[in-house]
Amino acid sequence: MSDAPAEAHQKLPVTCWFAGLATLDVIHRSAVRPGPNQKVTAVRQDVSAGGPAANAAVTAATLGARALLISAMGSGPVASAARGDLERHGVEILDAAEGREIPLAVSAVMVDQETGDRSVVSPDAALAAGFDVTHAALDALPRPDVVLLDGHHPDLARSVLAYAKSLEPRPLIVLDAGRWRPVFADLLGSADVTARSADFRAPDGVEQSRAVVATHGPGPVTWCDKDGRRGSTDVPTVAVRDTLGAGDAFHGALSVALARGAGLEAAVEEAVRVATIRVQYVGPRSWLEHLSCA
């Protein structure tokens, strides 16, 4: 990670891999939260691809990077809907379950009309466990400048990490660590940057990454680079309308900025800028129009 500012590298062509979860999100926006045995009428409905890696890839593609999603999606109707959304937004896909119909996760999402806060119920990758990807398949892809791993599909994550570590030059490894997953014990020590939530905790004895970025909701983002330099980046105060995928947008933008050679502080500033745009617009994709022209 160089110390150059992110804006100095905005025109550089870069390739980012995003390995992990893809889902189909069914999103309802509601003025009230349903109680037990209660039905409420939504004021808006959206259906789009979701998942940390998938949403980060959409952000990266919109920012002008070549974005490749490495996941297990399969050929079923749910996967077809998710795949169509991703491809419409410029994401290329390496599907570890290609040609097989698997139960791709459908996430039930509710967004509060007043606050923009979201609630999510999803099986994540549990319905399609055990998928891996071969070195030969990865060898056919364009070489990455940055590889982001979200910890879903553990076998796939380990394979992608092993491949990335074998490359010369070695790409930067970024971990999306929203909540602890056992696979992170195998990933953290090889990561160049861990982007984690404030409540992420690794068990004692687990080797840590070289640099850490921690988000704190609307509070400042704190960071510590590979040289031990620490700092924080303020999050602008804006009217929050929709927080769904804000963290994924942050990680996608962080990955692109790092791929373009930005230092950690400048990359965090760019990620905060992008996530701040995301939360101001209703819906999973409408905000991208404002991002691309920002």
Question: Would you write up a description of this structure?
Answer:
This protein is α/β, with parallel strands linked by helices and 294 residues long. The chain has one domain (13-33, 43-287): 3-Layer(aba) Sandwich (UDP-N-acetylmuramoyl-L-alanine:D-glutamate ligase). The chain is built from 8 helices and 13 strands. It has helices spanning 52-62, 77-88, 135-139, 154-166, 184-187, 246-259, 264-278, 288-292, and strands at residues 15-19, 23-30, 44-50, 66-71, 91-95, 106-112, 118-121, 146-149, 172-177, 193-197, 211-216, 219-224, 230-233. Helix 1 packs across helix 6 (246-259) and helix 6 (246-259) runs antiparallel to helix 7 (264-278). The mean pLDDT is 93.
Order of adjacent strands in the largest pleated sheet:
5-4-1-8-9-10-11-12-13
SSE string = EEEHEHEEEHEHEHEEEEHHH
> Can you say what the CATH homologous superfamily is?
Ribokinase
CATH topology: UDP-N-acetylmuramoyl-L-alanine:D-glutamate ligase
Distance between the termini: 24 Å
Number of strands: 13
Classify the oligomer. Answer: single chain
Mean of all residue-level pLDDT scores: 93
**Helical amount:** 25-40%
Using the CA coordinates, give the radius of gyration: 18 Å
Strand content: 15-25%
Assigned CATH architecture: 3-Layer(aba) Sandwich
* pLDDT < 50 stretches: none
Q: Give the biggest sheet.
A: 9 strands, mixed
- Total of DSSP H or I helical runs spanning 4+ residues: 8
Question: Quick one: overall form?
Answer: globular
CATH class identity: Alpha Beta
Structural class: alpha/beta
> How many structural domains?
1
